[in-house]
Amino acid sequence: MPSTPRRSTKQRSIVLEIVARAKTHPTAEEVFTIARKKLPEISLATVYRNLHLLAEEGKIREVQFEGSTLRYDGMTMEHEHFCCRSCGVVEDLPVSLPAATVASIQSQLGAIIERYSLDYYGVCQRCKESAA
Amino acid sequence: MPSTPRRSTKQRSIVLEIVARAKTHPTAEEVFTIARKKLPEISLATVYRNLHLLAEEGKIREVQFEGSTLRYDGMTMEHEHFCCRSCGVVEDLPVSLPAATVASIQSQLGAIIERYSLDYYGVCQRCKESAA
DNA sequence: TTATTATTAGTAATTATTCCTATTAACTAA
DNA sequence: TTAGTTAATAGGAATAATTACTAATAATAA
Prior knowledge:
The structure is a homodimer of 132-residue chains. The first copy, chain A, folds into two domains: 7-76, Orthogonal Bundle (Arc Repressor Mutant, subunit A), CATH 1.10.10.10; 78-132, Dna Ligase, domain 1, CATH 3.30.1490.190. In chain A, a hairpin with a 7-residue loop joins strand 1 (61-63) and strand 2 (71-73). Chain A is 41% helix and 20% strand. The relative contact order of chain A is 0.13. In chain A, the strands form two sheets. In chain A, strands 4-3-5 form a three-stranded mixed beta sheet. A two-stranded antiparallel ribbon of chain A has the order 1-2. Chain A has five helices and five strands; from the N terminus they run H-H-H-E-E-E-E-H-E-H. The A-B interface holds A 62, 64-66, 80, 82, 84-85, 91, 93, 95, 102, 105-106, 108-125, 128 and B 62, 64-66, 80, 82, 84-85, 91, 93, 95, 102, 105-106, 108-125, 128. The first copy, chain A, binds a DNA duplex (30 and 30 nucleotides) through residues 4-9, 11-12, 27-29, 41-46, 48-50, 69-70.
């Protein structure tokens, strides 16, 4: 089955660029606000559509933290996250589970594990210190 | 700071019972539907309110899988999840990360890690076999 | 009992996201 | 280039999930 041909549009490349450059993990609404500065006529629906498409293509990642709406992450390599419940900051952790851990669960279940999401929650260093 | 006194109501105990007994990880809407069978006048807002309260008290857990709405889990001990992208089933995995893994990330960050959420995604045994 | 007020039912309002449609613009082949 | 095809867009309507509001109810304390 041939995949639908995909056109390259200003809107799509701006959405990708915003997420790729973002140090935070922006929501669709935040991407939209930034995008409007570069392309004032871009519509919210277009931002949503392109975020989904780009995620499907693996060029960005969707991340869902507890108590939050869907966010987007420009870091595509495997990694984990830490979320501070006090200030809300999200930090990328450039680590991943040992392959053996994943393989062990996979064989226990008899399933195929394609990916996983690991998020740590707590209080970041900055908030910890300012509370002391 | 004294916590608000909490009354015990039929509604609250039914919501807790439903989540605790559920083998699936029901959404608020699903809990509501089941609750109506036992208490036909219970309202959806009451279900939502009590799910939050019970989660806050640690009697149930909120879980959020990708592409899904918020769900509730009656298993309160530490555990992980596997979600099948084909049939949607969610399996509880009675395992947890080694304390050393968590401690290492905690010290790398200088943060306090209070909890984490680890969800595996893939294809369950049943779906894998029926596809073969 | 009676008084107090946490909790509720029912519904309105809000938030996040998706759907719809006429129009625009990216690509293709002549 | 230019014309034809159709993917993609803007803008707004519609939907889904959740929260807010309020008068009435019922759990607890005195």
